[in-house]
Amino acid sequence: MPFDPTHAFNDLPALPPAVDVESRAVLKACISARAAVAELKAAGRLIPNQGVLINSIPLLEARASSEIENIVTTTDQMFLFDGVSEGEADPATKEALRYRTALWQGHQALKNRPLSTNTAIQICRVIKGVDMDIRRTPGTTLANDHTRQVVYTPPEGEALLREKLANWERWMHGTLPGSAEIDPLVRMAVGHYQFEAIHPFTDGNGRTGRIINLLYLVEQGLLDIPVLYLSRHILRHKAGYYGGLSAVTEAGAWEPWLLYMLAGVTDTARWTLDKILAVRALLEETAERMRRDAGPVYSRELAELVFVRPYCRIAHVVEAGLARRQTASVYLKALVAAGILREHKVGREKVFLNPAFLDLLKQD
């Protein structure tokens, strides 16, 4: 029976795929991707304070992944409201920040349990800020943003969805016949298609699936922390992302999809690597400037803090144990006087921007 986008795709084939997913072209692309990810993993260890990376690259990922779903905010807005009350933030910024929270909580959860359907449920709940669960009622469809024509109707029925998710879990963990020998990057790409095709939630599936990609790289030991900015590639090549997913569904065209994803991993691993090296250089340069131009308040911890918190508040200095409130204010004002930070007022509160770091993060 030919594929009909208006009918529930209950016949979505179980994994593993019926074709050999590790074609010659895929294996060649995989070698490049693995090398790029290995370099990224090594570079991540060059910055001793991992908070500098954890608080920056994932926020860029959160913004881009949300923008793929037409939830648009800015890097500045995300850093401004990161870690403080989001009451004044616009809805798009709140939702993008919840993505970053879901990524971080998922990373922490990996220490206690492997990726699973329950992980996906928890991630989706945090992203949406409501009590999401596996879809129980029919009627979910995916439509073209412009024409509103239905392009896909995912499988229906909670029992069927859970059965397909159990199969997906086994694929991801290499416990299906032949799956253990498949390279983890290929397993990730196949698994991402399958998760999106199952479409287990009423909303938030794409963002949940993209978080799972990053967590999977950590779980498989390819990265230490989830700092691959993969959504950058997807956002820049959005038509290829959705076209690739559709081609697998409609024609079983696995190779183009896998090559797309592996190219994305290679591209963004190299981009993130360059960004990390630039961050490291700027951090060292800033620490030296602080030592030279603001010597009485200099400490390595303070230099790192204004990178962990590029919108730094007095409370952040206090929470880091570097000074009491009044002294913390003196420290930050000294960095303003030295030209390292810029003072900015948000409502009644003063925040201290690290403009050089923010500019670096926004450079593409």
TrEMBL record:
InterPro entries: Fic/DOC_N, Fido, Fido-like_dom_sf, Fido_containing, SoFic-like, SoFic-like_C
Domain Fido: 115-263
GO MF annotations, alphabetized: ATP binding
UniProt-listed PROSITE patterns: FIDO
Keywords, comma-separated and alphabetical: ATP-binding, Nucleotide-binding
Binding positions (ATP): E69, H199, D203, G204, N205, G206, R207, T208, G209, R210, Y241, Y242
Active site feature: H199
Pfam families linked to this entry: Fic, Fic_N, SoFic-like_C
Protein name per UniProt: Fic family protein
